[in-house]
Automatic annotation (TrEMBL):
It comes from the Eukaryota. It is a single-pass type I membrane protein. InterPro entries: Cadherin-like_dom (IPR002126), Cadherin-like_sf (IPR015919), Cadherin_C (IPR032455), Cadherin_CS (IPR020894), Cadherin_N (IPR013164), Protocadherin/Cadherin-CA (IPR050174). The gene is PCDHGA2_6. The chain crosses the membrane at residues 686-708. SMART domains: CA. The keyword Metal-binding does not apply. The keyword RNA-binding does not apply. It comes from Merluccius polli. Residues 1-26 form the signal peptide. Potential calcium-dependent cell-adhesion protein. May be involved in the establishment and maintenance of specific neuronal connections in the brain. This is Protocadherin gamma-A2.
């Protein structure tokens, strides 16, 4: 055994290959003796192809054969060697052919590549020569002349060349010598030549051993006994009409179909002229296919004639007369091909599943098409059904590559059944189809997509933590984990706190829940981003905004800014005696932190000393006189005002307001009574009474002094000249004057609802702001400059100083009657 070598293909083959998809393919050619042991090494494929073992196994190098053909050898991926995997009998594979070559294909994937491997099988001398029969009967007339020749049936050795029959040897005898002849086809046969005349009376018969010898080493031989019978009469041997008969026969001919008739004639008469036929030598296969009528010489079909099994047969026929004289002829029967084999489509290799992101033109399979017929009947055309993103590209020989023609998308179509049809060119043509199933593997190429562009949710304030606000949903058409969507909040801040302290999103369901209770008065809406991510690697994601709108609940009672709420202090407004009906006396100012209806305030007088005297504007809170003030009216008027919002249920707050019908503060001697009807301690009451008495005394005294002092120079100025001054400190920071329309501003988005609409527009709002809560003693304390104006001329004298002190004391007492200050004032 030896390696013949590894050839590159010749130029023409090379050019042919350039037009195919594949790289250059070389032929590998090896030679090996028949009957090698299994596992014997034929050659080193890896070395001959210049590939490493790793590549060889990664590319799944393997031997492919034609359909029905045995494989005989395999590639060992461990050693890279081509080894014998089945018994190879040259005689079985090639018969008498002088050269026996087995052809295989070596297939490698990614990229698909095909190498032709031819394996030359060398003959070994494993068969001995054999004669067709054990004994040859030779009947020779005693009158035969010296030198007469008698052909002896040739022995046959299935080996070829040197291992075939080389010579014959005849056992030594008195009458015959052997002459070895060679036929035109190169086979050898022997002839007996009569060397010394026979004499029937001396010897009736004789047996001579003939040995056939081949040229192999060791030499093998076969023998036959030649039985010579010496005949009495002078006879003629039969003569065939043709030296060689030739017939042609369609394959698949029916049993008993007539093939050819051979005929031989004999010049003798009677029994000696009766010719019978017999087959002298026939191969085993031919014996099963043909039969000979001994009498007529007709040859019939007696088996299945298949062109693909054999296309030509030889039969040696012998004609014999009654004496046993015979002659030979040869019948050659050639079989004509019929298109009886449909093409066979074999899927040699396929990438399955195919990732959906392969580019167009990617090879996904290798297909082999074969037709066992010959010539035109063997020409095959291959095609795919329409509308699949695949096509067939002819590759070498009868191989086709299956390649993609478009981008694949598993989300659109996840599998293809590709129907390949092959038709030969016989008439009628035969065709076959094969369905190749290709499934498409997923690649994470789709990000999750939210059902909606954005989500919004409305939640009423004071909600419970854990309240479900809404749910987001995203779809990802990818497969399994590539399409599994996980939701999460994107980090961010709302009012300076992380979003996670406001909301949580359920990773699987996308349900968004509040984490805390929301307060509409703190913020009315906020936005978060929710991300949907799939589980692929790398993962894909998308995000969506979720806006949360908090709706108002009437949870804030109206807050009265002016006058200060009941209990903390009491306030007094001076109403000039001359006030006419409809004149503005005061105004209740209230705000509500809620919004909309919940902050729409209405003002009602729920209790008043003289119900007919004052009225309050329902919406502006302005308190006006209903009629002119008359002298009979009580000087002290007490009004309790309720401020209600319009919520469901509505909330309200009350305040009381004290109105003093007077042109002068000094005319109010019993003011404290009004303010302090419900004083808790009797002791305090007495104290107050005492104080008021003292105060009244001083007040009267002062008025007299002031009257004396000023009556000449100017009229005393009214402290609150029909106007209501509201200290700046009443206004909390977030409330601003609103436009004078007096209507509700649009929607919920404003902080305070105030009505103005007063014709006189006499509120003086000052921008600066100190504190929400007002110390009581500041309530109506005017700027010191007012006092300087009043007491501008009282300077220097101790009398004046005492006077001033008295006024201060009175002031203190008046406004801080229930304080410790009283004591201090008294001491002073
Ligand atoms: C492909 O063929 C298989 C089996 O015959 C069948 O189950 C499948 O539905 C077919 N697929 C398509 C896309 O036609
Ligand atoms: C998901 O996609 C990746 C590529 O992006 C792929 O390798 C993997 O096989 C896919 N998973 C499934 C379950 O299809
Ligand atoms: C949200 O998605 C958009 C595109 O859809 C992207 O531009 C933006 O950067 C993403 N935002 C975050 C916070 O990831």
């Amino acid at each position: 055994m030896f390696v013949m070598g590894y050839n590159r293909m010749c130029l023409c083959a090379f050019l042919f290959l350039l037009s195919t998809l594949h790289d250059v393919h070389g032929d590998l050619s090896y030679s090996i003796q028949e009957e090698m042991k299994l596992g014997s090494v034929i050659g080193n494929i890896a070395k001959d192809l210049g590939l490493t073992l790793d590549i060889l196994s990664a590319r799944k190098a393997r031997i492919e054969t034609e359909e029905n053909q045995r494989r005989f050898c395999d590639v060992s991926l461990r050693s890279g060697e081509l080894i014998v995997s089945e018994r190879i009998d040259r005689e079985e594979q090639c018969g008498e052919k002088p050269s026996c070559v087995l052809k295989f294909e070596l297939l490698m994937e990614s990229p698909l590549e095909l190498h032709r491997v031819s394996l030359q099988i060398q003959d070994i001398n494993d068969n001995a020569p054999r004669f067709p029969t054990d004994m040859i009967k030779l009947e020779i007339s005693e009158s035969a002349d010296k030198g007469a020749r008698y052909r002896v049936d040739a022995a046959h050795d299935v080996d070829i060349g040197q291992n075939a029959i080389q010579t014959y040897r005849l056992q030594s005898n008195d009458h015959f010598v052997l002459n070895v002849q060679t036929t035109s086809a190169g086979s050898k046969y022997g002839e007996l030549i009569l060397d010394k005349e026979l004499d029937r009376e001396e010897q009736q018969e004789m047996k001579i051993l003939l040995t056939a010898l081949d040229g192999g080493s060791p030499q093998r031989s076969g023998t036959v006994v030649i039985h010579v019978i010496v005949l009495d009469a002078n006879d003629n041997a039969p003569v065939f009409s043709q030296a060689v008969y030739e017939a042609s026969l369609l394959e698949n001919s029916q049993l008993k179909a007539h093939v050819i008739t051979i005929s031989a004639t004999d010049a003798d008469e009677g029994v000696n002229g009766e010719v019978t036929y017999g087959i002298s030598r026939i191969s085993d296969t031919s014996r099963k296919l043909f039969s000979l009528d001994r009498q007529t010489g007709e040859i019939f079909v007696s088996g299945d004639i298949d062109f693909e099994e054999g296309s030509i047969y030889e039969i040696f026929v012998q004609a014999k007369d009654g004496y046993g004289l015979s002659s030979d002829t040869k019948v050659i029967i050639s079989i004509t091909d019929v298109n009886d084999n449909a093409p066979v489509i074999a899927l040699k290799s396929v990438t399955n599943p195919v990732p959906e992101n392969v580019s167009p033109g990617t090879e996904v399979g290798l297909i082999n098409v074969q037709d066992r017929d010959s010539q035109k009947n063997r020409q095959v055309r291959c095609s795919l059904q329409q509308h699949v993103p695949f096509k067939l590209i002819p590759s070498i020989k009868n191989y086709y590559s299956l390649v993609t023609t478009e981008n694949l998308d598993r989300e659109l179509l996840s599998e293809y059944n590709i129907t390949i049809s092959a038709t030969d060119e016989g008439s009628p043509p035969l065709s076959s189809v094969k369905v190749v199933h290709i499934s498409i593997a997923d690649v994470n190429d789709n990000p999750p997509v939210f059902e909606e562009q954005s989500y919004s949710s409305y939640v009423t304030e004071n909600n419970k933590p854990g309240h479900s606000l809404c749910s987001v949903k995203a779809h990802d058409p990818d497969w399994r984990q590539n399409g599994t969507v996980i939701y999460s909040l994107l980090p961010g801040e709302v009012n300076g706190a992380p979003v996670s302290s406001y909301l949580s999103v359920h990773g699987d369901t996308g349900v968004i829940q509040s984490v805390r209770s929301f307060d509409y008065e703190q913020f009315k809406s906020f936005k978060v981003y929710v991300m949907a991510r799939d589980n692929g690697s790398p993962p894909l994601s998308s995000n969506v905004t979720v806006s949360v709108f908090i709706t108002d609940v009437n949870d804030n009672t109206p807050q009265i800014l002016y006058p200060a709420p009941e209990g903390n202090s009491f306030m007094t407004e001076l109403v000039p005696k001359a006030a006419q009906g409809g004149s503005l006396v005061s105004k209740v100012i209230a705000v509500d932190k809620d919004s909309g209806q919940n902050a729409w305030l209405s003002y009602h007088i729920i209790k008043s000393t003289d119900p007919g005297l004052f009225k309050i504007d329902l919406h502006s809170g302005e308190i006006r006189t209903q009629r002119d003030i008359s002298d009979s009216d009580n000087m002290k008027q007490n009004i309790i005002v309720a401020v209600k919002d319009n919520g469901q249920p509505s909330l309200s707050a009350t305040c009381s307001m004290f109105l003093l019908i007077s042109d002068n503060l000094a005319e109010v001697p019993e003011l404290k009574d009004m303010a302090h009807e419900d004083s808790s301690s009797k002791l305090t009451s007495y104290l107050i009474i005492a104080l008021v008495s003292v105060s009244t005394f001083f007040l009267t005294f002062i008025i007299i002094i002031l009257g004396l002092r000023f009556c000449r120079r100017r009229k005393p100025r009214l402290l609150f000249d029909g106007a209501v001054a509201i200290p700046s400190s009443y206004l909390p920071p977030n409330y601003a004057d609103v436009d004078g329309t007096g209507t509700l501003r649009s929607t919920y988005n404003y902080d305070a609802y105030l009505t103005t609409g007063s014709r006189t527009s006499d509120f003086k709002f000052v921008a600066s702001y100190n504190d929400n809560t007002l110390p009581a003693d500041q309530t109506l304390r005017k700027n010191p400059t007012d006092f300087e104006e009043v007491f501008g001329d009282l300077d220097g004298s101790p009398e004046h100083i005492r006077l001033c002190l008295c006024i201060v004391v009175m002031y203190c007492c008046f406004y801080n009657y229930n304080d410790l200050h009283i004591i201090i004032c008294l001491v002073i």
